[in-house]
Design a protein that fits this description.
Elements lengths: L7 H6 L20 H10 L2 H6 L1 H14 L5 E2 L6 H8 L1 E4 L3 E4 L6 H6 L5 H4 L2 H13 L5 E6 L1 H10 L7 H9 L1 H25 L3 E6 L7 H18 L3 E2 L2 E2 L2 E5 L6 H6 L4 E3 L6 H8 L4 E6 L8 H15 L5 E5 L9 H15 L7
Parallel strand pairs: 1-4, 4-5, 5-8, 8-9, 9-10, 10-11
Antiparallel strand pairs: 2-3, 6-7
Helix pairs in contact: 2-4, 4-8, 8-11, 9-10, 9-11, 10-11, 11-12, 15-16
The structure holds coproporphyrinogen III.
């Protein structure tokens, strides 16, 4: 495998010295880019993009052609796993993801297979290998998966939800059934992430988008515990290098201490948690990733710059920070605003790394 020309992202995740704070954006390959919309139209649909390794590679690289990003992220979706379990994922325009089948009874959970990535999702490791070849060492490639709880919400609800009524009812009424489902997902996700690592993913992120909807004890039981099982089973070193693990629970700022205890290398933060407080709570254990409100990208470049300056100074001097948005970039953002954001992270952060 080729040498990395820019390893700031991996170094910051390991809290090693860097020359400037690395930056990438969740959903950096997406609808705010006209070239992404053109590729999606050419492929036919979003899932056609995901399932064709050459097309997935093309869109993964699009934001890197435009901006000096410090990491690439595999173009795929967290819902490939429930799709591979036979639920039949489809996207209704304007309505987000839907499943043909939902999981409601013990018989439904029993019938779910454990995912075998090489057999059921071969296009994912294929895309990882294709992207690594085309990146040619420019920046590291991030692999990812959804957390068991987040995947379970989509499987039980049959799609997106505002209140997670059915998933929470299952967790509270039939905790053993929910745990069987979460266990099958944890085993599948572990294997899926390990196959991404073996194919060349140089860091992995677990997206726990809906853990923050749970009550305190329920988060520990239904979201964090299955993520802990995944962390315990991941390949942590590959090809002579550490493979850092990032755990991101949106709305999870109150649980940083137990999250850091799981043994991950970094925690993702959304914009509701001050990064200085997070650093003093868990910064001796893990790196931090985040946490600008993605809506700042609707503002003018000088307002974006002021917000970046704020977050950098709030984190303070030294390594252990990967700049990111606190959630995915939205389709309405102007591409030039994303560019202004990325450039000023590099420009304004150098002063915080002089002694590194
Ligand atoms: O970050 C990246 O650039 C990598 C690609 C990526 C996508 N989805 C592409 C995508 C990643 C990391 C995801 C993760 C994902 N998918 C999450 C976790 C992160 C989060 O946002 O909380 C979730 C919950 C999903 C499920 C999902 N996929 C939803 C709810 C939607 C619809 C969203 C919408 O705004 O319509 C998707 C579709 C999806 N996944 C798109 C992209 C670029 C848009 C599809 C399109 O082109 O129409």
């Amino acid at each position: 495998m080729s040498e990395l020309k820019n390893d700031r992202f991996l170094r910051a995740l390991m809290r090693e010295p860097v020359d400037a704070t690395p930056v990438w954006m969740m959903r950096q390959a997406g609808r705010y880019l006209p070239e992404y919309r053109a590729s999606r139209a050419k492929a036919g649909s979003f899932m056609d993009l995901c399932m064709n390794p050459e097309m997935a590679c093309e869109v993964t690289l699009q934001p890197l052609e435009r901006y000096p990003l410090d990491a690439a992220i595999l173009f795929s979706d967290i819902l490939t796993i429930p799709d591979a379990m036979g639920l039949g994922l489809y996207f209704e325009t304007g309505e987000g993801p839907r499943f043909k089948k939902t999981v409601t009874t013990a018989a439904d959970v029993d019938a779910l297979p454990i995912v075998n990535t090489l057999k059921d999702l071969p296009y994912v490791p294929d895309a990882v290998r294709t992207i690594r070849r085309e990146l040619n060492g420019r920046v590291p490639l991030i692999g990812f998966s959804g957390s068991p709880w987040t995947l379970a919400t989509y499987m039980v609800e049959g799609g997106s939800s505002k209140d997670f009524r059915k998933a929470k009812a299952m967790a509270y009424n039939e905790p053993e059934l929910m745990k069987m489902l979460l266990d099958k997902l944890a085993i599948s996700v572990t294997e899926y992430l390990n196959e991404q690592i073996k194919a060349g993913a140089q860091a992995v992120q677990i997206f726990d988008s809906w853990g923050g909807a749970l009550a305190h004890d329920a988060y520990l039981e239904f979201s964090l515990a299955p993520m802990q099982k995944i962390v315990n089973g991941l390949i942590r070193e590959h090809d002579g290098r550490k493979v850092p693990v990032i755990m991101f629970t949106k709305g999870g700022g109150q649980w940083l201490e137990p999250m850091a205890e799981t043994g991950v290398d970094a925690l993702g933060l959304d914009w509701t948690t001050p990064i200085s407080g997070a650093r003093s709570r868990v910064g001796h254990k893990v790196a931090l990733q985040g946490n600008m409100d993605p809506s700042i990208l609707y503002a003018k470049p000088d307002r974006i710059r002021a917000e970046v300056a704020n977050i950098l100074s709030d984190f303070g001097a030294g390594s252990g920070h990967v700049f990111n948005l606190g959630h995915g970039i939205t389709p309405e953002v102007k591409p030039e605003n994303a560019g202004a954001f990325i450039e000023c992270v590099h420009e304004l952060s150098r002063q915080y790394h002089l002694q590194d």
